[in-house]
Design a protein that fits this description.
heterodimer; A: 255 residues; alpha/beta; six-stranded mixed β-sheet; four-stranded antiparallel β-sheet; B: 275 residues; mainly alpha; 13 helices; globular
Chain lengths: 255, 275
């Protein structure tokens, strides 16, 4: 029986007595590419923080690679890119190389240089992170998440600060990692239309799971039509693909 | 008096050795604290130290063991600050303020009960590194070794937590345990630094050298080393100047720290303008 990357059962999380997540259950299989979408305040980041052990749920079970979260220790199998650096101190004296090395727990391996090159930031390796643009900081953080060659990558709104070209490069990189290396990917975004091109499955969250399935199912779902309205749903589903190409045959377009 | 003659005195040798060790301890810890916006923890713990010293002197413990006797209260207080901060309902600076106020208030009341300020308490308030005794020198050496070992052994974890605590937690780093270690070591540093700079100036020992090093815009590892160098230089030059000019050592050491900060800041400004 294959081991799931993540399995969540009946997860409920409250903050200050307010229910942020309610009875969340889903499974992410090895090699899956899951897009998590939903409006602001829907609990997307909270869900990820529960998975990573940053927040503790009031109820429910989280299993990572077949192990309960509280006994899971192989954190180098997971690469995480947070939504935004928590109030990054612009005077923080960490160089790009030092920050990326964080992902290797301080070790120096040949993959460090390779990852810097892959992200196109090798020329910035000795620069301080606080001196970089927001986009360059994001690429540095992405390199940090990738450098340990993790089996599971979790991205929380990773493309917010990136220009369209870098954004496209980022998405095709995630697709390559998923396809060629079998890396499981969970990506949170507001951009349902774009993630629909890459993710195998979508999870629409609004404190609880509103929808779970493929992008094709999402576009054909009467429940989602009722939720978004036909015009919005059409715009999401046809945002970046040719009308004829949209999920007509259920396959994804290659970049 | 010749400068070389100063070093012939045993109490000066002890002062310089203890000063260098305490400078190294406080500067290394200071880098992590300043970057995590806990700069004023030194102030808060120093005020607790004031209260603790007042308790110790009131009980009548020998002045030789005042530093040692004050340690437990200050260490517990550092954990109280950490606990208050981690509740997220109280911000770090407010938590330090609460504990600091309690320390000062308790100190004032206990001092009054013991019949007012005496010479011993004043020496702790304003510092007198030249009165460092053998016990304090041994304590400084032990704490120095513990701090160096902690920074080397937990360097990766400390770096990650300083950069982003939440991210560190997502990497499986035991942030709570690391924070406890950092705060307990800071308590030790604050108690030791009161002998060098005095309770009033303990935070300067924790803040100024890291701040000077940060002006250099160098890597994290080099910032730690630079802070240590500036701190040690300030202590050595401060003791020498104070001896030659008959000035209070604690104040002179802190002023030397400020001189290095202004010097580095000035050089940086000039180099920016020349670009």
């Amino acid at each position: 029986m294959p081991v799931n990357s993540i399995r969540i059962d009946d997860l409920t999380f409250c903050y200050n007595g307010l229910e942020i997540l309610s009875d969340i259950s889903f499974t992410v299989n090895k090699g899956d590419y899951l897009g998590i979408v939903g409006p602001n305040g829907s609990g997307k980041s909270t869900l990820i923080k529960n998975i990573l052990g940053i927040l503790k749920p009031q109820k429910g079970c989280i299993n990572i690679f077949g192990q309960p979260l509280n006994t899971f220790r192989q954190w180098n199998k997971i690469g995480y890119l947070p939504q935004r650096l928590n109030a990054l101190n612009t005077h923080f004296p960490g160089t790009v190389e030092e920050i990326v090395q964080l992902g290797l727990r301080g070790e120096k391996t040949p993959y460090l240089k390779q990852t810097l090159e892959l992200m196109g930031i090798e020329h910035l390796s000795s620069r301080l992170i606080g001196e970089l643009s927001y986009g360059e900081q994001q690429l540095t953080m992405l390199a940090r998440a990738l450098v340990s060659q993790p089996q599971l990558l979790i991205f929380d709104e990773p493309t917010t600060a990136l220009d369209p070209e870098t954004r496209e490069h980022f998405y095709s990189l995630t697709e390559k990692l998923n396809r060629n290396s079998g890396t499981t990917i969970i990506l949170i975004t507001h951009d349902t239309g774009v993630i629909g091109k890459y993710a195998h499955n979508l999870l629409y969250l609004d404190k609880k799971i509103i929808f779970s399935g493929t992008f094709k199912d999402f576009c054909n779902s009467p429940a989602m039509t009722g939720f978004f309205g036909p015009v919005s749903q059409h715009m999401i589903c046809h945002q970046h693909t040719e009308p004829d190409e949209v999920i007509a045959n259920g396959t994804k377009r290659n970049i | 008096m010749e400068l070389s003659e100063i070093f012939k005195y045993g109490f000066v040798q002890r002062a310089i050795l203890a000063g260098v060790l305490i400078a190294a301890i406080s500067s290394m810890l200071g880098v992590f604290l300043v970057l995590r916006r806990f700069s004023l923890i030194g102030d808060g713990l120093a005020h607790i130290t004031f209260g603790s010293v007042a308790v110790v002197l009131l009980i009548g413990i020998s002045p030789f063991y005042v530093t040692l006797a004050a340690l437990p209260i200050v260490m517990i207080s550092s954990l109280v600050i950490l606990k208050l901060t981690s509740t997220k309902r109280i911000q770090g600076d407010a938590a330090i303020g609460i504990v600091s106020s309690i320390g000062i208030a308790a100190g004032i009341i206990l001092t009054s009960l013991s019949g007012g300020y005496n010479v011993d308490l004043l020496s702790y308030l304003f510092g007198n590194i030249l009165t460092v005794n053998q016990t304090e020198l041994i304590l400084s050496s032990i704490v120095f070794l513990i701090v160096v070992a902690t920074v080397v052994f937990f360097y990766h974890d400390l770096f990650a937590i300083t950069f982003d605590e939440e991210l560190a937690r997502s990497m499986g780093i035991k942030t709570r345990e690391i924070n406890v270690i950092l705060f307990l070591l800071t308590a030790l540093a604050a108690v030791l630094a009161m002998k060098v700079a005095g309770i009033m100036l303990v935070s300067a020992m924790l803040i100024l050298p890291p701040l000077t090093a940060l002006q250099l815009s160098i890597s994290f590892r080099m910032t730690l080393i630079a802070a240590l160098i500036f701190s040690v230089l300030s202590v050595i030059s401060g003791i020498m100047i104070s001896f030659l000019l008959n000035l209070p050592a604690g104040g002179t050491i802190v002023i030397m720290n400020v001189v290095f900060l202004l010097l580095v800041f000035g050089v940086k400004k000039i180099s920016v303008l020349q670009r």
